[in-house]
Design goal:
Layout: E1 11-20, E2 23-33, E3 38-42, H1 49-56, E4 64-69, E5 72-73, H2 79-85, E6 86-89, H3 101-111, H4 117-130, H5 146-159, E7 164-168, H6 176-191, E8 195-199, H7 203-209, E9 212-217, E10 220-225, H8 227-232, H9 237-246
Helix pairs in contact: 3-4, 3-5, 4-5, 5-6
Length: about 250
């Protein structure tokens, strides 16, 4: 795969706090991802993983703390500009059902990158080809498999030329036989030098692809390190218990 990742940047999450009412969901999260590196975030349901991703591209404003791209705070960035720099892929794809695959990809290119119709269509076709779906450009999302829909969602995010990509359980809604294709695409993207934060229950992917694995529990990163350190030499009992349940 050939994606332009020369613009990838480093990502730092610094002491991020967020409460929903009395529910303190993030309680001082720190995470560092080097330029071109992949961090996998693992942890139990409700530990704040999705909320963390949403604070990184500022779908939610943290109560305290900061997010830095290449050392510079994103606080105060225009939300559209930030969403272009930080792409996000969700469990439920979030494609527009009434639009063709091609239009799903061109929409943001026209609105956010302000490309004209021909430029947007050409770039969208390039990215659909990259994810193996050039032939589906005119189809509606409902006529694609879940795995194909997720690859369209990835193409849509990549076409904006993000500097960081966030994945929130991107394969959790897929039938088992479709998971591999999407994980393979994500692994290629990682190998190609994209800076990525991947929330996942796929421990095999975390072990093989991640540069760093971060274990979240009750709103903090309890332990982070190289995959071998996390999977074979976990220090924290809560992490050891979690791994014994999921491996
Ligand atoms: P995870 O992705 O690790 O399962 P989440 O970040 O989705 O965890 O959720 C963490 C906690 O935040 C949960 O208790 C959840 O109910 C709560 N939460 C998430 N989003 C909202 C919201 N928009 N409003 C209120 N509470 C929320
Ligand atoms: Mg979640």
């Amino acid at each position: 795969m050939s994606i332009d990742t020369t613009t990838s940047v480093s990502l730092s999450v610094r002491d991020v706090h967020l409460a929903f009412g009395a529910n303190r969901v993030l309680r001082g999260v720190d995470l560092d991802v080097a330029r071109g590196a992949t961090a996998c975030v693992i942890g139990p349901s409700g530990s704040g993983k999705s909320t963390l991703l949403r604070t990184i591209n500022r779908l939610i404003e943290p109560d305290r703390g900061d997010v830095l791209l290449d050392g510079r705070s994103v606080r105060g960035d225009d939300p559209d500009a930030l969403r272009q720099r930080v792409g996000m892929v969700f469990q439920q794809f979030n494609l527009f059902p009434h639009m063709s695959v091609l239009r799903n990809v061109t929409l943001a290119l026209r609105r956010i990158r302000k490309l004209d119709a021909d430029e947007a269509a050409a770039l969208a076709r390039d990215h659909l080809e990259l994810v193996g779906l050039a032939a589906k450009a005119d189809a509606r999302p409902a006529h694609l498999s879940g795995g194909q829909q997720q690859r369209v969602a990835i193409a849509r995010a990549l076409a904006l030329r993000p500097q960081v990509m966030l994945f929130d359980e991107a394969t959790s809604a897929l039938d088992p036989e479709l998971v591999k294709g999407v994980l393979g695409l994500m692994a290629e993207l990682s190998a190609g030098g994209m800076t990525m934060v991947v929330v996942t229950h796929e421990m095999g992917f975390a072990r093989e692809v991640a540069d760093t694995v971060a274990f979240m529990d009750r709103g903090v990163v309890l332990e982070a390190g190289e995959p071998a350190a996390i999977f074979e030499r976990a220090a924290h009992p809560r992490l050891r218990r979690f791994l014994s349940q999921v491996l």
